[in-house]
Amino acid sequence: MATLTEEIALAAARLVVEEGLEYAAAKRRAARDLGRRSQRQGELPGNEAVEDAVREHLALFHADTQPTELAALRRLALRWMERLAEFRPHLTGAVWRGTATRLSSVHLDLYCDDAKAAEIALVNAGVNFELAAGSGPDDSVFTAAVPCRELGEAATLHLRLLDLDELRGALKPDGRGRTWRGDLAALRRMMAEGDEAQRGAAQ
Q: Which of 24, 38, 89, 170 could staple 81 via S-S, CB 3.0–4.6 A?
């Protein structure tokens, strides 16, 4: 019999995949849906547990469409990382971790000496970004709907501006040795490996 934490993880995974919610929001809503209004911290699953449940849900219900949608979003991320290369972009979130669908946002962390210069560069890129507060006291997030031709619709792009000093800890792995984000070279390697695996499967 599943524990409450496991039930929350499964319910949150469904919300992530089917409604495009981020993990934190999905966990809170899943807990509420299961009647846990207090949402004690010990009852909420960790992100890795939710991610495991997301992978299971994708394998069961979206195995025929998710790989193509993920590849399209990775190519979109690659184009923006190349465009913003001077700010040392790192891809994070579901697109990096391999669980993204067409409902997922593309999250890029930008590491820069001067956040104002990055802001000006974004304005000069001609994209209508909205500025919001980030998760930290000193970082900001620019959000925009950008066209993704392969999906035939707009995708949400989040650009988080971070101090260059934070780059040192950016590649710390999770409890299983996988990184939470990757730079432009790492994304290119990942995409090349994916293409190679697809060719091998087709032979």
A: 89
> Domain limits of the chain?
4-61, 66-202
Measured distance CA(170)–CA(181) in Å, rounded: 7
Report the CATH number of the 66-202 domain.
3.30.460.10
Quote the pTM value.
0.88
Give the residue carrying structure tokens 């993990």. Answer: 23
Residue 159 identity: L
Burial of 107 (0-12, 13-18, 19+ CB in 10 A): buried
Structure tokens at 176: 């299983």
> Residue 162 — φ and ψ, nearest 5°?
-125, 155
Q: Which of 81, 23, 88 is nearest to 51 (CA)?
A: 23
